[in-house]
Amino acid sequence: MKLDKIRNDKSSIRNKLRKISTINSAVILLLCWLLLSSTSLLFIKNYEKRNLELIAATLSTTLTAATVFEDSYDAHNKIARLGEEGMFDSAKLVTDDHTVLVEWHDHQQENGWYPRLLREWIYVKPLSVNINHAESTVGTLTLEGTVTGAAEFIRYSLMILTSGMLCVLIISFLLSEFLHRGMLASLRNITSSIHYVIRSGDFSLRIPESPTREFQLFSDDLNSLLTEMQTLQASLLRDNQSLAAKALEDPLTGLANRAAFVARLSQLLDRQFAKERFALLFLDGDRFKSINDNWGHAAGDEVLKTVGSRLSALAYKNDLVARLGGDEFAMLITSRVSEAQLQLLLQDIHEAISQKIVVAEGTQITTSVTIGYAWSQHGDTVESILERADMNMYKNKGISKVQV
C-alpha cells in the first residue's frame, strides 16, 4: 500500500511538473508570438516606408528633366511604369508654380477596411519629396504607398507563425513528462557558464543545448547576448585602437601631431648607426596671421591643409610630415642622405608652397614658409637636434626679413 502510495505521489509530481512545463511553454510561446508578431509588423512598416522613400528619391531624380521642361508625357510614362509594377498606389507631380503635370492612380488597389487601416498605420500620410535642379526646387512629387505586399506578408506571416507556435505547444505537451529529468543538469550548465563568463570575462563561451524547451530558449537568448557582448567587446577594442591612432594625428590636416613627431624622432635617434643619418626640417609660415586677418580662419585652415598636403606629396615612404601647431610644420627626412639631395628637396618645397592656393569663392592666396634644418649627429638628443633646427629656421627667417 505504501509503495502504491509512493508511486501515486511520484505520478502526482510528474503530472504537476508536466502541467507546470506545459503552462510555462504556452506562456513563453504566446509571448514569443506577440514579440515576433510585433517585430514583423514593425519590420514591414519600416520596410514599406523606407521602400517608398527610396522609390520617391529615385523617381524624383529621373523626373528632374521632365519637371524642368514641363514634359507631362514623359513624366507620366515614367510614373505609370513604376506604378503599374505595384511600387505605389498613386502619384502626383506638381511644378513649383503649382502646375499639375501628372496625377496617376492605381484603379485596381484594394479599398476594404483592412487595406485602408493598414495603409493609414504604415504611411500615416502621403510622402512628398522635392525635385531639385541647380540647387533650387522645381517641383514636388507626392506618392501614396501600396499595401498589397504588406497585407499578404502580414497575413501569411501570422498564419505561419501561429501554426508554428501551435505545433511547438503540442510537442511540448507530449514531451513535458520527460522535461524534469534534465532540468537540474540544464540549470547547472547555464549557471556554471554564466559564472565562468563573469569570472573570466570570456564571452566566447556558448551554453550547450538542453533537452528542456524552456531552458533551451533561455540558453538561446543567453547565447545571443554573449554573441552581442563578444561583438561589443571587439568593437570597443577597435575603437580604443582607433582613438589611440587619432591621438597621434592632427585633426585639421591629418598629419602626424607633435606627440607622434617626437616619438618618431626618438626612434630614429635610438637606432641610427655610424653611416646612417637623417635631416630634421622646421617649416614656419611667413604670413599666416595676415591670411587669418584678411580672409578669415576658414581660409587659414584651408591654407594649412593645402600646405600639409603639398609637403606630404614631396615626402617619401619612410619620411614623416607633421604639424606641430599653428602654422608650424616639421619633416623627418630619411630618404635623402646628402646635402645636395636635401637642398633639392628644400627647393621643391619652396616651389610647391609658393603656388597659389584657391580658397572659398575662388580667392587665390599666395604664401611661403621659412625652413630651418639640422642633420642628425651621434650623441644627439631630441632637445639638441630640435634646438639646432629651430635656430637655423629663425636665422633664415631673419635673413628673409632683411631681404624684404
TrEMBL record:
Domain of life: Bacteria
SMART domains for the chain: GGDEF
Gene Ontology terms describing biological process: signal transduction
Transmembrane segments: 21-44, 153-175
Biological pathway: Purine metabolism; 3',5'-cyclic di-GMP biosynthesis
Segments forming domain HAMP: 181-234
Any one GO cellular component localisation term in the record: membrane
Catalyzed reactions per annotation: 2 GTP = 3',3'-c-di-GMP + 2 diphosphate
Domain GGDEF: 276-404
Annotated keywords: Membrane, Transmembrane, Transmembrane helix
SUPFAM superfamilies xref list: Nucleotide cyclase
GO-annotated molecular function: diguanylate cyclase activity
InterPro entries: CHASE8, Diguanylate_Cyclase, GGDEF_dom, HAMP_dom, Nucleotide_cyclase, Rev_trsase/Diguanyl_cyclase
Keyword Zinc-finger assigned: no
Pfam families: CHASE8, GGDEF
E.C. code: 2.7.7.65
PANTHER family: DIGUANYLATE CYCLASE DGCM-RELATED (PTHR45138:SF9), REGULATORY COMPONENTS OF SENSORY TRANSDUCTION SYSTEM (PTHR45138)
NCBIfam families: GGDEF (TIGR00254)
Protein name listed in UniProt: diguanylate cyclase
Record lineage: Bacteria, Pseudomonadati, Pseudomonadota, Gammaproteobacteria, Enterobacterales
